[in-house]
Every structure is written in C-alpha cells, then in structure tokens.
Amino acid sequence: MLHNLSAFVFCFCLAAAAAALLVQGSTENERKGNGINTFTMKNKIYPLTSGAHASNLTKNYPYGNSSACDFGTLGEAKVKGRIVYCLGDSGPDSTIKGLKGVGTIMAVDPQLDYYMITLTPGATVARYKDGDKIDRYINSTNTSIGILMGDKKKYECSDFKKARGFDGLNYPSMHIQLGRKDTKISAVFYRTVTYVGYGNISGFKAKVTSPKELSVTVIPNMLRFTKQHQKQSFKVLVKGKSMKNGTDILSATLEWINFGYSVKSPILVYKQGAFF
Questions:
Q1: Does residue 47 lie in a domain region?
Q2: CA distance 109 to 129
Q3: For residue 222, how many other CB atoms are within 10 A of its CB?
Q4: What Cα–Cα distance (Å) separates residue 183 from each residue in 142, 143, 149, 180, 199?
Q5: Domain, as residue range, for 30
Q6: DSSP β-bridge partners for residue 87
Q7: Three-class SS of residue 161?
Q8: Is-contact 123 23, C-beta < 8 A?
Q9: Tens digits of per-residue pLDDT, 143-199?
Q10: The CATH number of the domain where 206 resides is what?
Q11: Alpha helices (H) in 7-68, listed in sequence order
Q12: CATH number at residue 63
C-alpha cells in the first residue's frame, strides 16, 4: 500500500531472480526456517553464533548494540570463521566481513519485500518467525552449527519472458540514470495497479507535475474500475534533452486523483556521480 488512503496498489516481483534467492537454513538438530540470500555456501558447515555472544563490550566501553552487530561492538576472535546472527539490517555484513566472519543472518521485522546485496554471504529472515528460532537455538547449545543451503532447483533465463519497459519492474516509483555523456532523456515505463478501494467504483485521472526540461506522457490518462481487485495497466513516457551544466537531478510526479483519494508516483532522472 502506498499510504493508508490509497485506492489501488502496485504489486511487483523479480521472477526467476526472486525464486533463486529463496533458500532454507537448518541447524544440527534439524530446526529449519526460510530466508533470502544471494550466495551459495556449497553445503559447507560453519560455526554459528550471534552478535550478543560475540560481544566485546566492557564496562569501560559500553557503547553500541552488539545484538545488532554494530561497528566496534564485536570481537574478531569470536566472529572469525563463523556465521553471525544479527538483529536488523543496518550494515552488519560490513562489520562481519571486517572481522573475517563467513556469513551474516539478519533478522528484520516486519519481513521485507526487498533485498539488499551483502558484502558477505548473507540471509534475511523474519525476526519473530524464523529469527527467534535461530536465537533460541544459539542460546541452547555451546556447539551451535549452522548451514545455509542454496536452492537445488535450476533456472534458465531463457525460460522467462523479457520484462517490458525501461526497468522491467512494477514499482510505484520510476527512475532514469544517465551517463555523463548521454545527450537525451528517453524511457518508457509499464505499470499495473490493483483497485483496493471501497464504495462507489469510478475513475482516476492522471495529473503530471514536471519541470519544463521533462515531457511526461501517461497512456491512458484515465483509469476506470468497475469492481474491487480489478487490475488496470498504463505506460509512462519520459522524454527530454540533455541536462544543462550544473544540473544533476530532475524530478517529476505522477498523481492519480479521485474524490477522496490520491496516489503518487515519483519520477527521478539523475546523472551518474550525482550526490544526494
């Protein structure tokens, strides 16, 4: 949901990429759970610990949260060669890599619908589901062993249709990244929305707010729904000349408007090397 007044939502997936990320983890006593990772551990087994157990905090240095694997809170001797379970996803993989750990399990709440690439083999799990199982297991034994197993199913990219449009996604937002030598702005985005509102079913009119340097066209510019959970698709054409010297970012907004409802999609164009 875009916000609590949205009348329709964007649904998205990464097809084969997402399927390949889904893996199962297990411990030596066969406690299992699901997570998401981007690496294969080749069925090797490593010692399993947690940030709380690998803490090097003392009375003289009590700063930081070792359970979240904050920088400076863990000891290398307790991390090296181990998979480390950390609360949250605020960069624990960087800490674990610096201390020569072999992997990171990040427990998040709520479960996320996106994934961030990690510096070490990493998995993301739902804290109050699989995460708590891992934590209880680590605290139940002095010789905890964990294994991260890649999905054995093979995927062929040729089996999947090529995604349409500039990004191939169905995000509410749209962005274009330009190279420093690009001389024009040109992109087409395809989006599908699902009506989840209540009451009278009616149409939504597209309203575009953009700077003069950008031309944004929405086709169609009116979405009409006749029933709840109905899907409608549209495309957005973004065009423009090269950005002027000194201009690194251009932004626009697509807003779908109906009585009492407003759903916004940001549109961003930026040059490589632009700093936010």
A1: yes
A2: 9
A3: 12
A4: 61, 60, 46, 9, 48
A5: 15-149
A6: 107
A7: coil
A8: yes
A9: 555 544 555 667 677 777 777 788 888 888 898 888 777 778 999 999 999 888 776
A10: 2.60.40.2310
A11: 15-21
A12: 3.50.30.30
